Amino acid sequence: MRTRLIVIGVLSRPALLGITLLALADCSGKPRPLDNLPPPRPPATEAAVPTLRVVDAALAGGAPALALQMSEDILARHPRDVGAMVRRGDALFELGRRDDAAASYTHALGLDRDNIPARIGLARTRLATDPAAAESILTEIVAREPHNAAAENDLGIARDLQGRHVDAETAYRAAISVTPENPAIQINYGLSLALAGKPAEALRILRPIAENPDATPRARQDLAVALTLSGDTAGAEKLLGKDLSADQVADAIAGYQALGTK
């Protein structure tokens, strides 16, 4: 599944955050339905390991339907394989089937209640609809694993979605301390700063990423958010014009400006 790049209409804070903070780029720069770090993969039964590596490759390569099929093939042979259950949840999540993904993660936790990737996955299924619940799960994870960058990054998103940007910044900085070169975390942090009324700081982070020759349209859109909130609407329009039509640019700018009035 590829990420949609267009923001249409004047969006509320949670709605726009759901687009900008939850649909960025992974470490390779390829779009993902959610711009979080992929959670660490859990161990699997020895017999399933080679196939699970192929599942991981399918997920990393943007082929969640194939990953789902392979995960279910593994589970047909090894129905209690927690690693396959988690990957099945990951594939379902990327296909937009969040309820089914949550069920898969919950099933995995029923067999291994302390499985961290399953807990992170379950939290992600709740980010858009119940960020407070997601935060509760993620807070518990980072208390146990303070160097888990994926959980810290997602914790920042959960807090941003609740409008608690200062708390979100703390989580992003913790994630950055673990993986300082990861652009996904940097982008989330930059957007959080912009939404917290610190556009100049946000621009220092987002501009180098968006101006990289290999930058994605999503990265340029994220920079446009910060430009708009800093008052540089013309700069934001020029940047968005590289990827969107004039009408789409106008709608996106209106949505970004609405954030500044919240």
Topology-level CATH name of one domain: Serine Threonine Protein Phosphatase 5, Tetratricopeptide repeat
The CATH superfamily name of one domain is Tetratricopeptide repeat domain
Tell me the structural class. Answer: mainly alpha
List unreliable stretches of 5+ residues: 1-35
> Globular, elongated, flat, extended or rod-shaped: what is the shape?
globular
Mean pLDDT: 84
CATH class of one domain equals Mainly Alpha
End-to-end Cα distance, whole Å, is 32 Å
- Count the strands? 0
- Taken in chain order, the helices and strands follow as HHHHHHHHHHHHHH
- Strand percentage: under 5%
- Binned, the helix content reads 55-70%
Q: What does the largest sheet look like?
A: none
Summed up:
The chain has 262 residues and is mainly alpha-helical. It has a domain at 1-35 and 146-262: Tetratricopeptide repeat domain (Serine Threonine Protein Phosphatase 5, Tetratricopeptide repeat, Alpha Horseshoe).
How would you sum up this structure, described in words?
There is one protein chain. This protein has 262 residues and is mostly helical. It has a domain at 1-35 and 146-262: Serine Threonine Protein Phosphatase 5, Tetratricopeptide repeat, CATH 1.25.40.10. Helix content is 66%, strand content 0%. It is built from 14 helices and no strands. The protein has helices spanning 13-20, 49-60, 64-77, 82-94, 98-111, 116-127, 131-144, 149-161, 165-178, 183-195, 199-210, 217-229, 233-240, 246-259. The chain is globular, with a radius of gyration of 18 Å. Residues 1-35 have low confidence and may be disordered.
